[in-house]
């Protein structure tokens, strides 16, 4: 059985999907981009600030499911420019304990929703 997870502390979906689905003990989040949920505006000042907003949005969704970054087992990062990898990785890494960090892939894509530079989704297990 699946449970819809939603929180006002992360951006509302911009299409026919939910912020996350909890199935048993596994949480599947939709990709998060750098929309500030309080203003509904994109945060695109620089790649570090953008990535930090994405991670805060993921944190809000995890918390809505009574989980935290320590529960994340897999993440997917989509970026528009691989030259930003090191900066994105530094911000992303600050949210995890390196010794227990999740499995991950990082893929450069041609374009992301709303022309953002980074989108991240996670799978978490409690």
UniProtKB/TrEMBL annotation:
<dbReference type="InterPro" id="IPR006175">
    <property type="entry name" value="YjgF/YER057c/UK114"/>
</dbReference>
<protein>
    <submittedName>
        <fullName>2-iminobutanoate/2-iminopropanoate deaminase</fullName>
    </submittedName>
</protein>
<dbReference type="InterPro" id="IPR006056">
    <property type="entry name" value="RidA"/>
</dbReference>
<dbReference type="Pfam" id="PF01042">
    <property type="entry name" value="Ribonuc_L-PSP"/>
</dbReference>
<comment type="similarity">
    <text>Belongs to the RutC family.</text>
</comment>
<dbReference type="GO" id="GO:0005829">
    <property type="term" value="C:cytosol"/>
</dbReference>
<dbReference type="GO" id="GO:0019239">
    <property type="term" value="F:deaminase activity"/>
</dbReference>
<dbReference type="InterPro" id="IPR035959">
    <property type="entry name" value="RutC-like_sf"/>
</dbReference>
């Amino acid at each position: 059985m699946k449970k819809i997870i939603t929180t006002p502390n992360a951006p509302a979906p911009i299409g026919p999907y939910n912020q996350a689905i909890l199935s048993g003990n596994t949480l599947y989040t939709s990709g998060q981009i750098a929309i500030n949920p309080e203003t509904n505006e994109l945060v695109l000042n620089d790649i570090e600030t953008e990535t930090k907003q994405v991670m805060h949005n993921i944190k809000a969704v995890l918390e809505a499911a009574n989980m935290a970054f320590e529960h994340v087992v897999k993440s997917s990062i989509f970026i528009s420019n691989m030259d930003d990898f090191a900066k994105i990785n530094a911000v992303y890494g600050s949210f995890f304990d390196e010794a227990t960090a999740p499995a991950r892939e990082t893929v450069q894509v041609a374009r992301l929703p709303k022309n953002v530079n980074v989108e991240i989704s996670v799978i978490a297990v409690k």
